[in-house]
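Q: What would this chain look like folded?
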Amino acid sequence: MTTVALLLLASAVGFAGARALRLPAVPFLILAGLILSRLVPLPEDLVGDALVLGVTVMVFVAGIELNPTRVGRQRKAAFQVGLLQFLLLGLVGGGAAWLLGFDWQTTAYVALALTASSTLVVIRVLQQRGQLFDPVGRMVTGVLLLQDLLVVLLIPVLTRLPDGAGAIGMGVLGTLGLVVLSSVIHRWVAPRLIPRLGRDEEPLLLLVLATLFLFLGLAWFLDLPMVSGAFLAGVALSPFPSGSLIRGQLNSLSDFFSAIFFTALGAFLVLPSMGELAQAVGLAVLVLVLTPPLVTLIAERAGFSARSAIQGGLLLAQTSEFSLVVALQGLVLEQITPGVFSILATVTVVTMIVTPFLATDPVTWRLMKLHPFRKPRIPQDPPRDHILLAGCGSNGISLLEFLVVGPRKVWVVDDDPAVVDQLREAGVPVIRGDVSDSEVLLAAGVKEARVVISTIRRTEDNGPLLDLARGRLALVRTFEGPEADWVEARGGHPISYASAAAESFLTWFRDESDASESDVSESKASESETPRPGTS
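A: My prediction, written as structure tokens:
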């Protein structure tokens, strides 16, 4: 208990320091763990247990974030990007490890540890930027899911290599069995059972923990890593709306165990030598520099615009919590040294910390200017006196159905390749590109349009559109008061979707209430006119 209390105290100090300086908490938690281990000798087995427990909860929560149905129409692009990034980054990382002088087994661990990106970091960034349900958000979610599944499948292969093909085959078959069970629960059980519990917290939490322990027990019985069972348990519980209900229950628990994990990681780490630190920095730079252009090239070939592809590459430019799982697994089995574990942990922590600062709009636009294959779109004969619709997702498509029956031609700008293909098949003029790209807007005739309508999710992306559409009627979707003020300050007309939705609901409610009252009145009148038994 003393060790747990000390870890909790160090976590609190780390969080306090991070909040005081308004910086990410992870490096402060690790630093607090490092200082604690130097001041007070901690039992290595208890710190190791805290690491395993913390990472188990972390990957369980990561699995809940990866609802496969959220990927939607971006499945093909996600598969292409995820698989090629996984293979190419693994090959390059393995080659770099071999050149650094590691043996074949350590090289395999390094290669697998560098292949996957962090679900927890990327999903949090997408949520903060409001891009979780944008095409790039859906594609990135699919990439994370595919890569995590590949790592889960390959962990038993890697750890059982010394035991031969039979042991490897049994490990893979056992993992596939858990994948099938997770799919069954995800598709047929969770969507039906969990919503019935609603917000009844105690039964819901008990069901969540029962599912987690079921998968952990099966993983133990099949001699598989516990984290593999935890991750697949999370995926099993991820479908909407059950995933949303569970996340609300587990937020505090997840933060608690994440803090314990990173503090224990700091206490567990052996400080790398200067040579090991240089190797860690080299591998981190490899991930940060290689991932964005690699993902950009693959995503563009899959149909994404340059900006969306670059955004995806920047979001995926880090290693993941599964990298720590792989490294911890190798250390426990004594297949890698503590020094190699420190190298991989350093790479993961550094790249996780850098991602929120790297995956920003200013960095994206700077890379757009450096894009060697981005051909400028020079408008030859842009349309005139038309309606320009920027963004044609679930909201825009309903509006488009109304606009196309009008007297004016409608042109659409959208960066979702699936939407673009659908509109082209329907004969709607559409330009594939980013709605915040001035060249795309000029090619779509933004300066010659009679009306410009934007339904894109992030209001700030309308800046170039509003600048070019000055003097035109520009209608922009907004959700909050500050967004409306921002649009008005740039000469646009904000359309509050929240107000429109509330008005539509109230209209529907009044109509339904009137209809119900009418039915009740008619029923009562019918009853009064119907002769009662025994009356003439």
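Residues 387-499 form a domain with the Rossmann fold fold (CATH 3.40.50.720).
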